[in-house]
Amino acid sequence: MRKLLKFLKPYVVGVVAVVCVLIVQAYCDLSLPTYTSDIVNIGIQQGGIDETVPEVIAEEDLEHLLLFVSSDQKKTVTDAYTETTKEFDYHGKVMELKSSVQKDEDRMKALSSILGEPMLLVTGFDSGSDMTRTLEEQMKNQMSNLSGMSVYEILGLMDNEQRDQVVDQIKEKMESMPDSMLDQAAASYIKNAYDRLGMDMEQIEIQYILRTGGKMLALAALGMAASILVGLLASRIGASVGRGLRRDVFRKVVGFSNGEFDKFSTASLITRSTNDIQQIQMLTVMILRMVLYAPIMAVGGIWKVFHTNVDMSWIIGLAVVIIVLIVAVLFIVVMPKFKVIQKLVDRLNLVSREILTGLQVIRAFGTQKHEEERFDKANRDLVKTNLFVNRAMTLMMPAMMFIMNSIAVLIVWVGGHSINDGAMQVGDMMAFIQYTMQIIMSFLMICMISVMLPRAAVSADRVDEVLMSSTSIRDPEQPKRLTEECKGEIVFDQVSFRYPGAEEDVLHDISFTAKPGQTTAFIGSTGCGKSTLVNLIPRFYDVTEGKITIDDKDIREVSQHELRDKLGYVPQKGVLFSGEIASNIMYGNPDGSEAEMIEAAEIAQANEFIEQKKKKYYSPISQGGANVSGGQKQRLSIARAIAKHPEVYIFDDSFSALDYKTDATLRAALKEKTADSTVIIVAQRISTILHADQIIVLEDGQIVGKGTHKELLKNCDAYYQIASSQLSEQELENDMKEVG
Asked: Residue 332 pairs with which residues in a beta bridge?
């Protein structure tokens, strides 16, 4: 997870914007259950009465309330009301709450606290509830000859001290009563008070429901807009992360030396650049859309729950603990398998790549059945592991749904008893269920991400391994510059080399000088180190001991770009890129002229087959040069090096696919073109290097002979053995006679 967050670091501004929008979305989603509760509790049960203190009240009703208010608090109530001039369908004086009081929150709270219990009592006396009937009988028993009077008349006959004592006794009996019951009684009282004034209670109820419903619609619309915006931002950030990682991985891989390519297989690098980065990109979107949203919703839902009914908060705790346990078990069982899956994907890619690239050889040897079995095994291993993971994960959703439904039943069971006891309203229970489901869904979102997180975490580790890998071939901090008059003299000074991790040297104590205007050739048996030696010049590998210089400058002290800019390299296996013949020839000199292109093709003897094509130099080249022969591919590779006009030409067995006539003609034309350049040739055929100025014979990574063709025939037994295997007896005798 830490590495996933590291990949998000460059996009911190966008992430902050997403979080801000998610907070808005969460606010909208968390507000809707409250409004649902209000519609049920206030809109339906309380007839749209959402105030705790009546804004208008008949003077007679206010006097009845004041009978249950202690003497020291009566003034607070009377000062809050004044006679209204508004017309009501009521024959009597009507009192209105002063506007200054309505705007003062503290005074409104004080009034609500004072009038809450009196409104409950008056409602009870008017409806004849059991509690108020008992209180009324007790007061009548205390005072004789009052059996025909109402409780209001009895309290009116009492002096302040007696009335306060009665009020205190009543309050003591009501101390254990929940606040929700007082709120419901207040709403019921205000509804009856307004009804006595002739107010249209049905209209009040409809207006409240419509007003609250309108707010819900507005919040839902805002939440929808926020969700769309989050989706857009998350998709853009996810795409940017994927694009950035692919760019960084590509740049890193392009800078790899052959040593790094030996460490990371090509199939693995392809998987890391595609499948692994795709996993990271998908998870990035999920993190921004769900993972960040889940804790916001969970915290907000818990905060709302504690403001709805704290007595049932233990239910949420129980649900969360069960969910965490399920997720923990899944992680312990499944997490190791995700690491195996990515390795199996690598293996499948490797097998597929080998089969597809070697299809001709497979058909030629009739091993299709064996390769099918090899592919099936890699495929079955991947399928088997994926099935195990998917089966484990399929258990998660039914388990989560079972928990959600069980929790809903438990809330209804506990909430039903609370409603029956008057400690909770129906709307509160509905809101609590919704908040609980939102909290559980938040954890469920995280659980859904947990399906992807382990695999993406493995992918992040694999991508980060490529990005953090140190390249063995580095440019110096302060590189030396090659002069514009660079001649291209290459000197090997006691060079030794061994591959990373190898125990023995491949090349040992190699010393020679390749001068401009001369051709230096290497020959030897297969595996003697010829190609390895020339690969040291472009710094595909760095020497283990000794040094290589170009114009007296150590190539390790020159930047790779500047060094390779002086080289024209033709690899042992010709490599062409999809495009056109022209784009391949001018690959190293894109700003060159058409005349340079034609000249290079003529020298490389490629113009013969190019001119036969319909589009000539603009004929298409398919991927890997699959639509040209091996000899044509080599000639185009040679033409590409010639068109660059380098100071040093390196031909790594680049004439092997050419016939003798084309080989001779090409070398003759090449000699004129490279008269002032350093030419280094690796060859297997004696005929290719007969006229080289310097031939170096390699055997087991060491120089065993150095000189011209005739000198080596006389002085080097290894060279003589090679020559005798390739030249006719007559040619060999003539050469030996010339040596004398």
From this structure: none
What's the rounded Cα separation, in Å, for the pair 673 and 266? Answer: 37
**Nearest Cα residue to 308 out of 36, 23, 29:** 36
Instruction: Report the distance separating Cα 349 and Cα 375, nearest Å.
Output: 10
Q: What is the mean pLDDT of residues 453-458?
A: 71
Task: Return the exposure string of 486-524: e unless at least 16 CB atoms fall within 10 Å of the residue's CB, then b.
Answer: bbbbbbbeebbbbeeeeeebbbbebebebebebbbbbbb
**Pair 56, 197: CB distance under 8 Å:** yes
- Round the CA-based radius of gyration of the chain to a whole number and report it: 46
Return the residue matching tokens 């020497």: 543
CA distance 491 to 547: 8
- Pair of tokens at residue 736: 């030996």
Q: How far apart are CA 329 and CA 341, in angstroms?
A: 19
Give the strand pairing for 567-570 and 519-524. unpaired
* pTM, full prediction: 0.64
DSSP-assigned beta bridge partners for residue 651:
570, 681
Give pLDDT, residue 110.
Answer: 87
> Cβ distance 548 to 555 under 8 Å?
yes
CB of 34 within 8 A of CB of 219?
no
242, two tokens: 């994927």
Q: What is the dihedral of CA 372, 373, 375, 380, to 10 degrees?
A: 130
Residue 140, pLDDT score: 55
Residues linked to residue 480 through DSSP beta bridges, in sequence order: 558
From 477, 489, 630, 475, select the one nearest 560 (Cα to Cα): 475
Q: Which two tokens stand for residue 248?
A: 């960084």
How confident is the model over 464-495, as pLDDT tens digits? 778 777 777 777 888 888 777 778 888 999 89
Backbone angles phi, psi at 707, to 5 degrees: 155, -165
Please state, in angstroms and rounded to a whole number, the distance separating the CA atoms of residues 642 and 345: 42
The whole-angstrom separation of Cα 466 and Cα 470 is 9
Alpha-carbon span 214 to 452, nearest angstrom: 39
**What are the tens digits of pLDDT across the range 61-84?**
888 888 888 888 888 888 888 888
Cα–Cα distance measured from residue 40 to residue 30, given in angstroms and rounded to the nearest whole number:
17
Residue with tokens 């923990």: 328
